[in-house]
Specification:
With about 90 residues, the protein is mainly alpha-helical. The chain has 4 helices and 2 strands. The longest helix is centred in the middle third of the chain and has 18 residues. It is found in: Mitochondrion.
């Protein structure tokens, strides 16, 4: 287990130091999904909501990132952990 941060070093967005409990792969997945959402979804989500639409091309990009069916095993799916699936959702 990683060494806890010293007083004054606490991350204001991670009071419980959950980040230290994640594997490197889980942090990478979280950061990748976070960046994808910031770049591709957040700028236009309000407009899509108002119009009742969602761009189909983003579905392919989400698949390319391995986000679709990621918790399933077989069928070409990754079979990721429940933690990884929760981070991506």
């Amino acid at each position: 287990m990683a060494e806890p941060l010293k007083p004054g070093q606490l991350d204001p967005l991670d009071f419980l130091e959950i980040d230290q409990l994640l594997t490197g792969e889980e942090r990478l997945l979280r950061d990748t999904v976070r960046q994808f959402v910031a770049d591709k979804i957040t700028p236009d989500v309000g407009e899509w909501f108002d119009e009742g639409t969602f761009p189909r091309e983003l579905i392919k990009e989400m698949g390319d990132l391995g986000l679709l069916g990621m918790h399933l095993e077989g069928y070409g799916c990754a079979g990721t952990s429940a933690v990884a699936y929760g981070l991506a959702c």
